[in-house]
Amino acid sequence: MEDRQKTLKAGEGKLAGKQGQNSEEAAKDAAGRGDPSKSRTVYVVGHKNPDTDSICSAISYAYLKNQTDGQRYRFVPARAGQVSAETQYVLERFGAEVPRVLDNIGTRVKDMEIRKVPGVRSDISLKKAWTLMTTQNVYTLPITNEKNCLEGLITINDIAKSYMEEYDSAIVSVAKTPYRNILETLDAEMVVGDPDGYFDKGKVVIAAANPDIMENYIDEHDMVILGNRYESQLCAIEMQAGCIVVCLGATVSRTIRLLAEEHGCTVIVTPLDTYTVARLVNQSMPVDFFMRKEHLMTFRLDDYTENIRDTMSQKRYRDFPILDKKGKFVGMISRRNLLGVRKRGLILVDHNEVSQAVDNVLDAEIMEIIDHHRLGSLETMAPVYFRNQPVGCTGTIIWQMFRERAIDIPAQIAGLLCSAILSDTLMFRSPTCTALDVDAARALAGIAGIECETYAPQMFAAGSDLLSKTPEEILYQDYKKFEFGDLNISIGQVTSMNAQELDSIREKLTPMLAALPGGREIDMVFFMLTNIIEETTELLCYGKGSEHLVEEAYHQKVRENRAQLPGVVSRKKQLVPSFMTAISRMTAL
Length: 589
Known about the structure:
By secondary structure, the protein is of the alpha/beta class. The chain has three domains: 2-107 and 343-463, Alpha-Beta Complex (inorganic pyrophosphatase (n-terminal core)), CATH 3.90.1640; 126-289, HprK N-terminal domain-like (Udp-n-acetylmuramoylalanyl-d-glutamate--2,6- Diaminopimelate Ligase, Chain: A, domain 1); 471-588, DHHA2 domain (Diaminopimelate Epimerase, Chain A, domain 1), CATH 3.10.310.20. The strands form six sheets. Strands 3-2-1-16-17-18 form a six-stranded parallel beta sheet. A five-stranded mixed beta sheet has the order 7-12-11-10-9, sandwiched between helices. The chain is elongated and about 115 Å long.
């Protein structure tokens, strides 16, 4: 026994480390995020309102897959609901982490190909923005601040409009254009003035006439574009121009410089000709003046693609910025990126019905299904590995797979799988239990260092502490939906070794159960109060036709929405098949 305990502790340490690693890696979500050279994340998950088999099988199968196929994929156990008290006891007993919640497997923005377009500051020139768009082959530039928070967007259309539709000669000053932008755009040098200043007053004019005429159209603070004409330069300065731009790289005399300094006039020299300067000067304006700042359509990394699809189709924007959880800019997506979104990898254990699976299961890439229930309504786009055996527990199938692949079972995994089998077979009392389940449980118990007959009552006792829970917690801890033709039927179940506890549960659940049927989602609802010791079930039934269905299936009279079903303890192998047979007979009539 001492050796077994040592083995168990060693296995616990190994698996706990593995589970912690998986949790961190899952947060990165390998589909489209992080280092593309690393393996892809595949989630292993059971059904909604998971029981002990669903949780323990997910953990155990993820461990097995990581041993056999861990080079290509990272297999992460997950759960589609809250764990029950029984399952919590099992996980704590064997030192296993509670799997992460995965209630929706639909693709998210982070699964898309996000273009990593770097943000630019709002004071860069239109010309620089255009150059960046051309070199990066993008149509939209994000404008961000020093903290990488999105301030606005500018598109090629915005730049084209600024160039083609602006006829105001004062627009350069209205835009509060930095002189650094003007120097960069005109490939110029400032010989008088402050390069960190702004041209924020006056209009832009060309000094094409003689000084006598210039006096009639040059106003204070104007920017005057001129050539190597001393008289014109002097006239502009005396007319209190804010800036003169000397073209063709002409030398500015010392006298003109001194006069410019005295009058507070900036002097810029550019090698470009007058025509080119006049054409380019508007391109020096900062993007801040033209960018869109209000009502920006942004998405978050965790947004589901199904939720953003309609928005993207209705808006006439070409690109949409993506933000992380802290509101920081990440990159851009377009409608084209929706077409190539990579589905998230998924392995289903202990179920194969859409109604029991995580939300948007059909949007995932289902890679495998390991189950022991009837074939359900789930369809896949491509062939998958599907293993379904008529045994009492999914854990038994996974035990077989460990053996088939010659993988050693750690003590911790053995404890989880043994617990799953004991729970699903009601310690070998359920009619679903097979000889293979018994052999598997005994073998696993030996590895885990436990005795089935001693451990099972402790596990059941921990899980039967139901009176402290709310009616909602009791109802949904083991609650499944089934489709029988046009009928939507829900069946819940609790098991206990205490008849008085089951009576109290019935009183707590009755008002809630009576209100559930109706509408399109649920036609009938049934709840099994199963006494493990007496191997009997009291079935609560609500909804139009529910009493008739029970009487047709079991020939038992239903009184006050209750029917006694001696010998019935299994929803999967007894209740559901009997209902299916009865519905078939009723439909045929």
